[in-house]
Amino acid sequence: MPTNHAHGSRSDANPVEVPDFLITEQAQSDLEAIDEYITADNPRAADLLIDDLYSAMQRAADDPEHAGTIRDDLTDRNVRFMLVRKNYWLIYTAASATRVVIVRVLHARRDIPNIL
Predict the structure, then answer these.
(1) Interval 23-73: pLDDT, tens
(2) For 40, 56, 89, 92, which has the most beta carbons within 10 A of its beta carbon?
(3) How confident is the model over 81-91, as pLDDT tens digits?
(4) DSSP 8-class letter at 96
(5) How far apart are CA 52 and CA 103, in angstroms?
């Protein structure tokens, strides 16, 4: 996945499609907000985190049923959760055996049940 991503907002609001996964508009907005927040203090750390999140997306696509877990305590939606760096939830649904839709990317301290 990209290692030199642009910081800041994208000019379009369309979902981002990569061969193995689709990033919804809301998840893209989440990624941009995370990137902007961390970049303010440490651009290199922001780059590394975003790279890790994209790597996690690929791991989810490689094995959607086992990469993440179902969290009935957080939502009754048909989504899986993958914890990235102990602080960020990658929330996705399996579109097929090798393709996922990234629904949200949220900090673990956020109020996940109310957000979803």
Answers:
(1) 999 999 999 999 999 999 999 999 999 999 999 999 999 989 889 999 999
(2) 92
(3) 999 999 999 99
(4) E
(5) 17
Taking the mean position of all CA atoms in its chain, how far away is CA 82?
A: 9
CATH of domain 17-109: 3.30.2310.20
Which residues, in sequence order, are CB contacts of 38 under 8 Å at separation 6+?
45, 46, 49
Spatial contact of 79 and 67, defined as CB atoms under 8 Å apart? no
d(CA 44, CA 24): 25
Angle value at C-alpha 76, between 27 and 112, nearest 5 degrees: 45
Amino acid letter, residue 74? L
**Token pair listed for 14:** 């369309």
Amino acid residing at 97: A
